[in-house]
Amino acid sequence: MPDIAGWRRERLQELPDTAHFDLAPDWVCEVLSPSTQRRDRMRKLPAYAREGVAWAWLVDPISRHVEVYRLDHDHWVLEGTWGEGHADASAVRLPPFGALAIDLSRWWA
Question: Does domain 4-108 match CATH 3.30.160.270?
Fold first, then answer.
């Protein structure tokens, strides 16, 4: 189970009446911590790839950065890393949400 998940509206037009979803998400986000980082990277990312999740974010609040991965067939490709020290951390556009400017400095406050 991811920390946060999202589905495209055309794939999940209404919320199910159950406590879980059978449809894999289009996007997942894992918030890393020293105790979960290994599991998130080594177990969860491969499981998300097997299920066909298209995008994954790994957010590291300690080092204050976000890694964005895109699924390419059966493996993850690093699209980029954004965070503290980024040229304009107050208005980053993280795939797949390129239309939305995100102020990462608010995440670390």
Answer: no
Q: Where are the domains of the chain?
A: 4-108
Structure tokens at 59: 């957010």
- In this prediction, residues 49-55 reach a mean pLDDT of 96
Helices and strands, counts by H and E, the chain: 3, 5
CA 91 vs CA 87, 97, 108: distances in Å: 9, 12, 14
Average pLDDT over residues 40-64: 96
Q: What is the mean pLDDT of residues 1-29?
A: 81
The model's pTM is 0.88
Instruction: Provide the residue type at 67 as one letter.
Output: E
Q: What is the pLDDT of residue 45?
A: 97
Cα angle, residue 2 at apex, residues 66 and 108 outer, rounded to 5°: 35
Rg of the chain over Cα atoms, rounded to whole angstroms, equals 14
Task: Tell me which residue of 57, 56, 78, 66 sits closest to 108, measured CA to CA.
Answer: 66
